[in-house]
Amino acid sequence: MSINNKKKQIIASCISIDSITNDDISDLLISPPSQDLGDFALPCFRFAKILKKSPLAIAEDLAQSISEANKNKFASIIAVNGYLNFKFNPLESAKQILAEILEKKSGFGSSTIGAGKTICIDYSSINIAKPLHIGHLSSTIIGSALYKVYKKLGYNAVGINHLGDWGTQFGKLIVAFDLWGNMAALKKEQIPYLSKIYVKFHEEAQNQPELNDQARAAFKKLEDGDLHAIELYSVFKKITLQDVAKIYKILHVHFDSLNGEAFFNDKMTPVIDELNNLKLTEISDDALVVRLSDYDMPPCILIRSDGATLYATRDLAAAYYRKEKYDFHKCLYVVAYQQNLHFKQIFKVLELAGKKWAKDMVHVPFGMVSLEDGAMSTRKGNVILLKDVIDKSIEKSLVILKSKSPKLKNKRSLATKIGVGAVVFFALSNNRIKDIIFSYDKILSFDGETAPYVQYTNVRALSVLKNMNVDLNKYFTNHLTDDELKGLDNKESALLVSLFEKFPDILSDVLDKYEPSILTRYIIDVAKAFNKFYLENRILNAPDEFKRSRAALTYATHIIICEGLKLLGIDTPEEM
């Protein structure tokens, strides 16, 4: 249990109101708008009807009724405008949280709350033979961050890249390659070459519509096991996976499964048969559908009039498979909000099929990324490649390092950590549901609330610790004494301590809301608080009795920032 939750329980145990449980009190506690008001505030408005008093009077009465024995647990208990504000002894809080962080280090915030529970997370979902572009960034980075946080809280997280590796587009590529392709050029240029001939196909098909018929025929050959079609398809897939693996590596993104649409081709028939046997399907305009008009949704089409299956059919097969293979506690789909209806249909069909686990399926939507002059299209070649974004960010970082820190060694390595961090932070800095208008100026900005700012804050903390010339493991072996803790008797230290205590709850909040930006904003808050502490309080040249406590606060900041950024997939350079 986190220190914050323990404190909430202490507060709840001091209050007695008929029909209100300790858990109710604990759930009601909030953070006051100002640190000066206290650590927690209890809104008393809910109790007005029960106690037949105004919230202001209730807060005043509760402040008076809490026994002296309990009051000794707090530095202050103050009633303010219907709120009861509790403040714990800040130095005692500092002593407890610093001892825990310095003992657990990167393990701080970890828990076993997820032990025995499997979470499947479907993210990134790239298309074979197409490049990773900026539109893939949100799904990839949000899913990866959730994966890492679930792991930290003890869950068995399963990262799934549901590859777009089937469909008529492969017929188009086969036709395009047979008409204009060259194997030597393909192996040399790889994904860009495939993109080029894919765009050419759509350009040519505008004047030669018969090319689309050829593409459908080529895909039918692929489905039927034609050796030439299979050989080309296999080359396309191998090249794609090798290419994207480089980007996933630099982004610290991991997958446990690469089973895509092709994998589920032979798993659709049993699902369709089950839905037929349950009499959930019907024929509509020669297509097999599950009618959902009773739920204000259009029908979920399983088989088109031409006999082809759709994304919905394969997603249903994938859901059955994942439940059987992983017996998941939850199955998340990190997919853009434009697919809201699709997932509502899928989840409703599973529910109608009597799958109790349908309630455990969760769509985690996010906003779309578009160019400043409009949406992206692979068919038209109007995309910003993710590799280009990363490379440009790294190059900009290198220029800054050369100008500001010319004597630094390993500038390229440092620039990579800074540049990649800037890209990842961009994807996670706002609420995931917001649309993003992509701009190089925004993504490459090193001003304001950015990853480089946080990374530099960590470098500043490390510099302090290095200049102490001590063995940090031995230096903090013993707990801080009361005299040493007096070095933290200031607002800047109290704010940092309060933020440290929130870290475990922040991680839980990230998972409750499927929102990594909560962690991003938290790390910014820690960085800002430390920089204020650094500017307002002496550390290296502090009075001897204060030096160890302030160094401990600095070390704890370093630990929190490193662990927080690691969960987001961002490196922490040791110098900048």
Written description of the protein model:
- By secondary structure, the protein is of the alpha/beta class.
- The chain has three domains: 86 residues, Arginyl tRNA synthetase N-terminal domain (Gyrase A, domain 2, 2-Layer Sandwich), CATH 3.30.1360; 203 residues, 3-Layer(aba) Sandwich (Rossmann fold), CATH 3.40.50; 141 residues, Orthogonal Bundle (Isoleucyl-tRNA Synthetase, Domain 1).
- It contains 24 helices and twelve strands.
- Strands 5-4-9-10 form a four-stranded parallel β-sheet, sandwiched between helices. A three-stranded antiparallel β-sheet has the order 1-3-2, with helices on one face. The protein has a three-stranded antiparallel β-sheet with strand order 6-7-8.
- α11 packs across α12 and α13 crosses α14.
- The longest helix has 25 residues.
- The mean pLDDT is 92.
